[in-house]
Amino acid sequence: DLAEAVPPAAVQETVGSWLHWAELLGRRTAELHLALAAAEEKKLAPEPFTRLYQRSLYQSLRTEARKTLAVLARRLADLPEEVAVRAARLLKNEQGLIGRYHDIVDRRITAWRTRCHGDLHLGHALFTGKDFVIVDFEGQQNRPVGQRRIKTSPLRDVASLIRSFHYATHATASAPRRESLLPSASSQNLGPWMTVWRTWTVASCLKSYLSQAARGDYLPASRGDLESLLGIYVLEQAVHELNFELHHRPGWVHIPLDGILHLIEPHLLPE
C-alpha cells in the first residue's frame, strides 16, 4: 500500500527534497538490478525460484533466527530494563517469528534469483550532490563467501534499504546535530517527525523502485508473493541487525529489536 500512496501536501512541504532523493535512489537501485538480471554469462545469469530453494531459504532463515535469539537470551540480563522487557517479549514469541518465515514454503513463488549488491544500505549509496553512486559490492562481510555467492531475489537489497531508512532516523535522533532531517533545529517532538520522515521516504523509494523494476521480470509475478517475500527479507535483515548489535553495539539493540516486534506483531502472544 505504501508503494501506491501519494504523500499529502503537508508531508511534501515538510519532508521536502528527501522525497525526491529517496525516489532517485529507488530508481538507481532498480536500474542496477535490471542490469544484473540481464546478464547472460552463466555465473551472473538469473535462475528461477524453485521449491527446493524456497525450503533451503526457510531453513537458513530459521537457523539464523534461533541462533540470534539464543544470543539475546544469554545477554538479557545485561540489557537496560526497558529494552530487556521487549527482548523477553520477543523470546516468548520465537515461534511467531519462525512462523512468519514459514510463508516462504507455504506458497509457490514465481520469480528469479540474480546477483545483487548483497549489503545495500544508505552508507553504500554515495550522494554526489545530484545523483547516487552505489559502492562496495562484496556483500555482508560477516557472512561466509560461499553464502554471499548464492543468487537471491533483488528484493533482499530493497529490504536492506528499507531497514537503513529506519536506522537513519534513530542515528539522527541521537546525534548532537539534528538539522539534517528535522524541519528546524528547535523541533522538540522527534518521535512523530521521524515516523513521518521514515514512512514517506521509504514509500517514495519503494514506489520508484517497483515502477522501474517493472521493465524486467525478475520480481514475483503476483502482488501477494511480492509483499510476502519483501516482508520476509525485511524481517531477515532486522534479525541480522539484532545479531550484529548484540555482538558489537549493545547500546543499539533496541533499534532492530523494535523493528522485529513491529514486523511480527500479528503473531505476538498476549501480554
Structure, described:
There is one protein chain. This protein is mainly α and 271 residues long. Helices cover 60% and strands 4% of the residues. The protein contains 11 helices and 4 strands. The protein has helices at residues 9-15, 17-37, 51-75, 81-92, 94-101, 103-106, 145-149, 155-174, 190-213, 223-248, 254-263, and strands spanning 47-48, 112-113, 125-127, 132-134. The strands form 2 sheets. The protein has a two-stranded antiparallel ribbon. Strand 3 (125-127) and strand 4 (132-134) form a beta hairpin. Helix 2 runs parallel beside helix 9 and helix 10 packs antiparallel against helix 11 (254-263). The longest helix is centred in the last third of the chain and has 26 residues, at 223-248. The chain starts with 8 loop residues before the first helix and ends in an 8-residue tail after the last helix. The model has no long low-confidence stretch (mean pLDDT 86).
Give me the strand/helix succession: HHEHHHHEEEHHHHH
Structural class by secondary-structure content: mainly alpha
**Proportion of helical residues:** 55-70%
Summarize the biggest pleated sheet: 2 strands, antiparallel
Instruction: Bin the strand percentage.
Output: under 5%
**Shape, per Cα inertia axes:** globular
Average per-residue pLDDT, rounded, comes to 86
Number of beta strands: 4
CA-to-CA gap between the ends? Answer: 29 Å
Order of strands side by side in the largest beta sheet?
Answer: 1-2
Radius of gyration computed on alpha carbons: 19 Å
Helix tally equals 11
> Regions with pLDDT < 50 over 5+ consecutive residues?
none
